[in-house]
Amino acid sequence: MSLELLWSPFVEFAFMRRALVGGVALAVSAGPLGVFLVLRRLSLMGDAIAHGILPGAAVGFWLFGLSLPALTLGGLVAGLGMAGIAAWVTRRTGLREDASLAAIYPISLASGVLLLGLAGNKLDLLHLLFGSVLAVDPPTLNGMLLVSTGSLLLLALIYRWLLMDSLDPLFLAGVSRFGPLAYGLFLTLVVLNLVVGFQAIGALMVVGLMMLPAAAARFWSRHLPRMLLLAALTGAVCVWLGLLLSYYANLPSGPCIVLLAGLAYVCSVLLGPLNGLLRRQPHLSPAH
Amino acid sequence: MIHCHNLQWGPGGRALTPPLNLHLAPASLTGVIGANGCGKSSLLKVIAGIQQPLRGAIELTVPRLGGVAYLVQQQALDRQFPIKLHDLVSAGLWRSPLNRQQRQTRLEQALADWGLLDLQQHSLQALSGGELQRALLARLSLTDAQVLLLDEPEAALDEHGLVLLWQHIQRWHTQGRTQIVVSHSISNMSQHLDNALLVSRSGCIFAPIRELVGQRSSLEQVA
Q1: Is A168 on the interface with B (CB under 8 A)?
Q2: Is B6 helix (H, G, I), strand (E, B) or coil?
Q3: Shortest CB distance from A176 goes to which of B70, B75, B94?
Q4: Structural domains of chain A sorted by starting position, each given as residue range(s) with its CATH number in brackets
Q5: Domain assignment present for B44
Q6: Which chain regions cross the lipid bilayer (chain A) (predicted)?
Q7: Long-range contacts of B164-172 (CB under 8 A, 24+ apart)
């Protein structure tokens, strides 16, 4: 096998090139966000938000047709709205946060599907959920690059607050007012990444690109900057190899990318030096 | 420094004690004693501004932000969190106006004070309960907070740790910081501090701790 096979589809086809650049950009920003979700024990939040996006994107599509800004704005409002409602119910009633999220997202998914039905079914539901590389046209690519760069910059800016708010919010509240704002900005970034990702790899598949590299990174390092870097790199490599796999085997791209990330995760669970199943570690102390 | 006017507090809208009037002077060192569930920890939370009082008012002469440091009872920190002890402790300098060099000096001093120099590169997972408690106390000692609220600071500390703790409480006292210490160890408290607040359902009593020790058992039987 010639090594040329690893890049020739991207040289040959502009749509493959756009999918690669956009996908890698997205992976590089989604991975670190996923690491923070794992640290905050909100690993299921991404999934819930991805479902929450759907009705907003459907309304956007209904009103404005297949326009990227409309879909993005609708998705952003709905995604943040769902997360906000879940958090509000939790705070007002004491319902556990995971239960609150789990209750909200089937509602979103069902209403999204109904709205798409009302919109005349011109927007393929499967496309929305599982994406298509062909969907990455130049405006979408620009959107992905913008969100990715913006996410990384903002994440670097709020890193210190987000870190302490994740570890010890009570302490942070005693020394800074910025904790809740940092958390809100972080959630906005999560929603934004999921929204721009749903075009290219699908609303549900992009969650895999966010969470799998993040969960895998935990088996390799206990040093946060290293974990963030590792998650970003793993995601980027999975996008590249996943696109190749989808090209040569003629398979849908989203599932290819996510299954490769899944493979990276399984290998990490088995072989990772930190508590990996096949590495003997004497001190597996329970979480406190 | 801390003024409570007809203060009532408690979880779920249920007041735990009759209204409390209490005035704590700057640089005072006050113990809080009482049976389990009498509302000692909730009182600290109300003073720290984490819980709202049910009735009455509480006034602090320092801003809550940066002015009050609160050591939580039974730390619920995620031990898998990827952070080293050094970075956890250095967060105490969050609001510090010092420059980099001065911060480094103060941090090393605090680590040395609490016997943590050899542990600073350890992850949270590798720490024992007492070591983590010392790290949190070291973080607290680095803040410039004038009000220190310590909820069962003796938890998980060994004998050496206890000696360090009471040394520091004395040192903070002489520095003029206002302290409230919740503890069940009456013997340690009566050795190191003068006044205490006995919290109970039948009423709160602020008095010299030696007087309270005798009353405590009889009061709790009434309650």
Answers
A1: yes
A2: strand
A3: B94
A4: 3-271 (1.10.3470.10)
A5: yes
A6: 20-39, 46-64, 70-89, 101-120, 140-163, 170-192, 198-220, 227-251, 257-278
A7: B164/B113, B164/B114, B164/B115, B164/B134, B164/B137, B165/B137, B166/B191, B166/B192, B168/B113, B168/B137, B168/B141, B169/B29, B169/B193, B172/B141, B172/B148
Question: Per the CB < 8 Å rule, is B78 touching A223?
Answer: no
Report the 3 state secondary structure along B51-117. Answer: CCCCEEEEEECCCHHHHEEEECCCCCCCCCCCCEHHHHHHHHHCCCCCCHHHHHHHHHHHHHHCCCH
The ipTM of this complex is 0.90
Cα–Cα distance for residue pair A153/A32, rounded to 1 Å = 12
In this structure, what DSSP letter does residue A1 have?
A: -
- Tell me the average pLDDT across A26-52: 92
Query: Are the beta carbons of A171 and B139 separated by less than 8 Å?
Result: yes
Of B50, B78, B145, the CB nearest to A167: B78
Domains of chain B: total? 1
Instruction: Write out the two tokens for B216.
Output: 């405590």
- pLDDT truncated to tens, each residue of chain B (223 aa)? 899 999 999 887 889 999 999 999 999 999 999 989 899 999 999 999 988 999 999 999 999 898 999 999 877 789 999 999 999 999 999 999 999 999 999 999 999 999 999 999 999 999 999 999 999 999 999 999 999 999 999 988 999 999 999 999 999 999 999 999 999 888 888 888 889 999 988 889 998 888 887 665 555 444 4
Residue B70, domain member (yes or no): yes
Contact: A285, B125; criterion CB under 8 Å: yes
Task: Compute the nearest-CA separation of B220 from chain A (Å).
Answer: 32
- Whether chain A has a CB inside 8 Å of the CB on B222: the answer is no
User: Whole-angstrom Cα distance, residue A184 to residue A80?
Assistant: 9
Q: Name, in order, each residue with C-beta under 8 angstroms of A223's C-beta and a sequence gap of 6 or more.
A: B82
- Give yes or no for A221 touching B (CB within 8 A): yes
Side-by-side strand order, sheet with B195-198: B68-71, B147-151, B178-182, B29-33, B195-198, B205-208
Residue A230 to chain B, least CA–CA distance (Å): 14
Give the A window 172-191 contacts with B, CB below 8 Å. Answer: 173-177
In a domain, B205, yes or no: yes
pLDDT band at A284 (very low <50, low <70, confident <90, very high): low
Interatomic CA distance for residues B102 and B114, integer angstroms: 18
- Give me the CATH number covering residue B25: 3.40.50.300
**B80 contact A CB<8A:** yes
Which residue in the set A167, A175, A288 is minimally distant from B66, CB to CB? A175
Residue B97 counted as domain residue: no
**Partner B contacted by A282 (CB < 8 A):** no
